[in-house]
Amino acid sequence: MHVLHLSESDVDNGGARAAHRLHQGLRSLGCSSQMLVRAKFGTDNDVIREKSLLTKVSPPLSGLPLRLYPKRPGGIFSSQWVPDVFARRIKQLHPDIVHIHAICNGYLQIETLRKIQKPLVWTLHDMWPFTGGCHYNQDCDRYQEACGTCPQLQSDRQQDLSYWTWKRKANAWKGLNLTLVATTAWMAECARSSSLFRDLRIETIPLGLDTEKYKPHNRHFAREVLNLPQDKHLVLFGAIGGTSDYRKGFHLLQPALQRLSQSGWQDQIELVIFGASQPQQAIDLGFKAHYVGRLNDDLSLALVYSAADVMIVPSVQEAFGQTASEAQSCGTPVVAFNSTGLRDVVDHQQTGYLATPFEVEDLAKGMVWVLEDRERHCQLQFQAREKGLRDFASKTQASRYMALYKGLVGG
Hints:
By secondary structure, the chain is of the alpha/beta class. The protein has 13 helices and 13 strands. Helix 6 (about 220-225) packs across helix 8 (about 300-305) and helix 7 crosses helix 11.
């Protein structure tokens, strides 16, 4: 069986890394697997970069309609209107299954999907596939009927860009041979409640990772390599975009840490932040902070997870939350909010702590609960690693996808 993965890139963000991990997992099972990407950052020979001029100019062109909404507060919004060459390229590669991952940022025009004459599988790495353009809905439920009057565009018109993007999807994707895969129960429920996907088959398969790369390392060694203190409890926070992405919840972590620093932990804890460089103007976090920058390779990430006593994932919305699964696979307990996809990734008081959404007091309480009892902490570490091996191993994930593929092609 030959599987072709469509992904905007291969390893430079969470969705891309997830796609590449599945690609590697399938190959480890003997499956013929390739990736077709717009931007290639790794060295995998089975990752093919599409080099056409149209593919190069598509990202800047795709953002042009957003200029009609100058009051838009920010956040990722994709209308995917630019034509592409991918239907022809896919035909040349002769796949049995076309597996779609993150295809925004000008990668694939909405109408291209109906030109692909193969069974389609789509892993939902965010909410974009069933909205009018936003990648996460925040508090808006218009995607359940028809988008328009979009709060993320600051639009007061029903027939705005979000409506026309939703309408294009509804017209182009009607009758597609499409199977959806959600990574968590929350994402599956969101897709089922959407007007675009409520009648489609939706499976749930967690994201996988290489548990031989993401494994516990000696804490003393990890801290020495990263130049981190040996005599402190280390609280870890990390996300691409780091402290600047509202969805990742740094605005909730900051007051939680400040409350923690006022409750007797001042001299016992230090903070480690990856995914962001040290800001020019210091941020009051209540504790000394170590900024280790953007970590792109698996070993560096496994070391920083192993160096920490607890990982904090205070996201407001997550389709899955790979930093949480990676940390647990390295034996590091995770504190997160009991909300969205993270409810599936962290087991409350078994592999970490799920705080009441979005109460900073309970987030601080969760950190204390993980750290205050050494024997409990050791048990949490053991159970976190066991969950990684049981639920997130890439071969387990790949095997489930292989069974799905075979059912779709009759092989």
